[in-house]
């Protein structure tokens, strides 16, 4: 019986193994939509449409069929990893805690990827430290399936706001990161932005002026369950960790747990193929709009703030990667959000000035792909300014483990695994972009 059990576990591991393939086609046809329709459990990790190149994470069961499709299209492929979980395995042992500063604005708090518990302790320090306690309010807006808190950090100042001589209530800016578990850089950058607002509130005239008109709300870690799972079990995990109909039916396949939170928002939910109905898909939309506690908590928080004060005016959504500045709509290529021209002009100007034209600006459904139930589409229904930053690295010369001369780098990787050294680099760039964008809004509409 022991031998049978061992064999069963061995074959189960083979069936559950996910492979990373680099795929290239000779033409620029719409290969991606065809592949995603034919292979509903496939996960797109990287792509370069101009080069017709893709990197996919796919289950073992897809290999034969995908190989046949590639050959029929005269394409080529190379296997980058036969078992992604083992190739980029995360040690189950937590790293030893380093001794951190009593100053919550110390750089040590944004030079690393913290655990969830460390992150919560830092936020409590922000609220209790003499340096920041008068500026910080913490809002626990909900709990996850695994009973972790969703904590929004509010930066509030008493700088007087006057328009035409009258004192006015502030409006609000909402920033979030960590919606997809494996996108650790977005968590680090959200924390960096929060710290920079606090550090520069008096010394930087633009930051000071922005804080006169807006309170800043930051949710750095929207998917703490998935984030912790990606730290301890599967570095490329994307979804949250709530059970699904398939996970309850057969617990053998861990991919059948969780929902893609950025397909679960209650606007245009399930309106295009970019959100999967299959519970084992990496882009599973959930059983209904806002079915996930993380999404429901954010939706309720943002809607509640619409009724009381402050009213949310702009939303900056942080993801990784590709270096894109994405504007709504995401769900369709046939329509544009009403104020698209203004969004595009403002975003392009800031991207050119601050980012040296290395960010591509445009409608999300065109620059990436159509998908429904996204946070920026939902936010756009009641905020004038909603956008997504896809952080570093850039999609160029795919895959990252192939040099331009086509030699193979055997230490190849994918962009989700970018290290903590990029937090300050990307954080500084995104912070400056947000400041320039908001300062222009203040000058145009509030002065």
From TrEMBL:
One MF annotation (Gene Ontology) recorded for this entry: zinc ion binding
Cofactors that this protein relies on: Zn(2+)
Lineage: Eukaryota, Metazoa, Spiralia, Gnathifera, Rotifera
PANTHER family: PROTEASE FAMILY M14 CARBOXYPEPTIDASE A,B, SLL0236 PROTEIN
Alphabetized UniProt keyword annotations: Carboxypeptidase, Hydrolase, Metal-binding, Metalloprotease, Protease, Signal, Zinc
This protein's record includes keyword Metal-binding: yes
Family: Belongs to the peptidase M14 family.
GO BP terms, alphabetized: proteolysis
KW Protease (keyword) present: yes
Protein's name in the database: Peptidase M14 domain-containing protein
GO CC annotation: extracellular space
Pfam family, one: Peptidase_M14
Signal peptide coordinates: 1-17
Domain of life: Eukaryota
Active site (record annotation): 390 (proton donor/acceptor)
Domain Peptidase M14: 109-441
């Amino acid at each position: 019986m022991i031998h049978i059990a061992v064999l069963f576990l061995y074959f189960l591991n083979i069936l559950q193994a996910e492979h990373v393939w680099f795929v290239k086609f000779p033409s620029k046809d719409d290969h991606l939509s065809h592949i995603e329709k034919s292979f509903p459990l496939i996960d797109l990790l990287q792509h370069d449409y101009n080069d017709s190149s893709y990197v996919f994470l796919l289950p073992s069961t897809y290999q034969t069929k995908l190989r046949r499709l590639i050959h029929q299209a005269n394409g080529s492929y190379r296997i980058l990893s036969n078992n992604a979980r083992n190739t980029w395995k995360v040690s189950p042992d937590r790293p030893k805690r380093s001794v951190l500063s009593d100053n919550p604005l110390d750089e040590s708090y944004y030079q690393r990827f913290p655990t969830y518990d460390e992150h919560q302790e830092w936020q409590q320090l922000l609220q209790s430290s003499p340096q920041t306690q008068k500026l910080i309010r913490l809002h626990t807006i909900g709990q996850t399936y695994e009973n972790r808190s969703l904590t929004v950090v509010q930066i509030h100042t008493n700088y007087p706001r006057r328009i035409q001589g009258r004192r006015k209530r502030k409006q609000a800016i909402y920033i979030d990161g960590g919606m997809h578990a494996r996108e650790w850089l977005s968590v680090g950058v959200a924390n960096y932005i929060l710290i920079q607002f606090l550090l520069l509130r008096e010394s930087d005239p633009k930051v000071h002026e922005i804080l006169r008109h807006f309170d800043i709300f930051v949710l750095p870690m929207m998917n703490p369950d998935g984030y912790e799972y990606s730290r301890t079990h599967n570095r490329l995990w994307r979804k949250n960790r709530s059970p699904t109909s398939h996970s309850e039916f057969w617990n053998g396949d861990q991919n059948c747990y969780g929902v893609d939170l950025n397909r679960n928002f209650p606007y245009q939910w399930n309106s295009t193929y970019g959100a999967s109905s299959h519970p084992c898909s990496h882009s599973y939309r959930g059983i209904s709009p806002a079915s996930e506690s993380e999404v429901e908590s954010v939706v309720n928080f943002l809607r509640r703030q619409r009724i009381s004060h402050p009213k949310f005016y702009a939303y900056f959504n942080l993801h990784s990667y590709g270096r894109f500045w994405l504007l709504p709509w995401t769900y369709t290529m046939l329509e544009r959000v009403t104020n698209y021209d203004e969004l595009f002009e403002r975003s392009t100007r800031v991207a050119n000035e601050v980012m040296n034209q290395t960010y591509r600006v445009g409608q999300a459904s065109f620059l990436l792909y159509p998908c429904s139930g996204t946070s920026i589409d939902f936010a756009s229904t009641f905020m004038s300014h909603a956008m997504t930053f896809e952080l570093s690295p850039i999609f160029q010369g795919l895959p990252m483990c192939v040099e331009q001369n086509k030699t193979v780098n055997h230490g190849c990787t994918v962009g989700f695994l970018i290290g903590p050294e990029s937090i300050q680099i990307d954080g500084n760039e995104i912070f400056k972009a947000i400041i320039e964008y908001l300062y222009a809004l203040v000058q145009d509409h509030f002065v």
